[in-house]
Write a structure and sequence with these properties.
Number of helices: 17
Strand order of the largest sheet: 6-5-7-9-8
Largest sheet: 5 strands, parallel
Shape: globular
Order of helices and strands: HHEHEHEHEHHEHEHEHEHEHEHEHEHEHH
Bound molecules: 1,3-dihydroxyacetonephosphate, iron/sulfur cluster
Number of strands: 13
Structural class: alpha/beta
Radius of gyration: 21 Å
Distance between the termini: 44 Å
Length: 365
């Protein structure tokens, strides 16, 4: 029988160990009605409870394939939105802490992207010249914008395939919100750097001239990830001096020079797979979020592989870290009592257009 929702305050002072027991007990009650999806950046205290772990693409597929009544997302807001969009209307997507956002996703919003479209439309027929491509790290209304304008969504693991599709539709791409992923993707496709220009949403015409836009193949939105921008070429240079035989692997949200100096560049899932499959004795410098790197380092130790974090500073995704054992225990106990807390629900009209672009992405990748 349904009761009043349990308040989070009752969990705030609870220690991690007690929360672990409460999580397990609530899971037991919920059984197959619940599925937990966990992104690789999550802290171990919640990550260990995930039924499926992965990068954004893998978790989108898991959400689309899930039959569970409740999809609890250990990730950030846009990931839970994607789970809501791709699941059936009778399934419920939940984010254990509503404050778990993505600072990069917040760097583009619909008002600014619409302004960009209007400014470009003064010089070009927007819908026949530009394919809008949004990184999955964006709000649902931007995915819907892409749906409305013949665009598509990409993730860090399929960006090149998606860009190929986008160029098969129109001559130019408007890529938001991550300039680094957009630039690296264009570079891998052989597009010269001068043909990829940064669109600054706070400047008239993005701070560009009409001639610059004429020549450009990709307009890169001026956005970035605050975690990955901490990695610097010097970190790689120092590592190579100390360990000339060492290998470097980075996430494509890292600055261009960092990606260029790396041996391998790819999504979180790609990073885990590549390091896991490398030969015993390999030493790795890894440019992505700290929780992933620490977990990987622990897992690789018995196999004789050394894994080290790229920056001397702590670079944690502080918003992802808001999903802690306390919030997970609170969420699951409420669900076990019949109370849905922190539901992420995208408005149906927006969800319909956003689903179109996400399904297009899944089909292309
Ligand atoms: P992945 O899709 O590679 O997991 O990346 C998601 C993300 O937010 C990285 O910062
Ligand atoms: Fe967003 Fe960066 Fe955190 Fe990824 S690491 S969720 S891009 S803030």
């Amino acid at each position: 029988m349904q009761s009043a929702p349990i308040k989070f305050e009752r969990f705030q002072a609870e220690n991690d160990n007690a929360c672990q027991h409460r999580i397990l007990a609530a899971r037991e009650k919920l059984g197959r009605r619940l599925v937990i999806l966990g992104h690789h950046y999550q802290q171990e205290g919640v990550y260990r409870h995930a039924d499926h772990t992965g990068d954004s693409l893998k978790l989108s597929r898991a959400a689309a394939a899930s039959d569970a009544e409740y999809i609890v997302f250990l990730g950030v807001h846009f990931m839970a939105e994607v789970a809501d969009i791709l699941s059936r209307p009778d399934q419920v997507a939940i984010l254990p802490d509503m404050a778990a956002g993505c600072s990069m996703a917040d760097m583009a919003n619909l008002a600014k992207v619409e302004r960009c479209r209007h400014e470009l439309a003064e010089h070009y027929d927007f819908d026949t010249t530009f394919t809008p491509v949004t990184y999955i790290n964006s709000a649902a209304d931007l995915k819907a914008f892409c749906g409305e304008h013949g665009g598509i969504v990409c993730t860090s693991s399929n960006a090149q395939k998606i860009a190929q599709w986008a160029f098969s539709q129109r001559e130019k791409i408007l890529f938001f919100p991550d300039q680094h992923l957009g630039r690296w993707t264009g570079h891998k496709m052989g597009i010269p750097l001068e043909e990829m220009v940064v669109w600054d949403p706070d400047q008239p015409l993005g701070g560009l001239t009409k001639e610059q836009i004429d020549k450009a193949r990709i307009l890169l939105w001026k956005g970035h990830c605050s975690v990955h921008q901490m990695f610097q070429p010097q970190h790689i240079v120092n590592f190579r001096k100390q360990y000339p035989e060492g290998k470097v692997i980075s996430h494509p949200e890292s600055p261009f020079e960092v990606c260029r100096l790396s041996d391998e560049v790819g999504s979180t899932e790609f990073i885990l797979k590549t390091v896991s499959e490398s030969a015993s004795g390999t030493r790795w410098l890894v440019g992505t979020e700290l929780n992933l790197v620490n977990r990987l380092a622990e897992r690789m130790k018995p196999e004789g592989k050394a894994v080290q974090f790229m920056s001397p500073l702590v670079c944690e995704c502080s918003t992802m870290a808001r999903i802690d054992p306390q919030h997970l225990a609170w969420t699951l106990e409420n669900l076990a009592e019949g109370n849905i807390v922190n539901r992420i629900h995208v408005a149906p009209e927006e969800a319909e257009l956003a689903r179109l672009t996400l399904e297009r992405m899944l089909a292309v990748s």
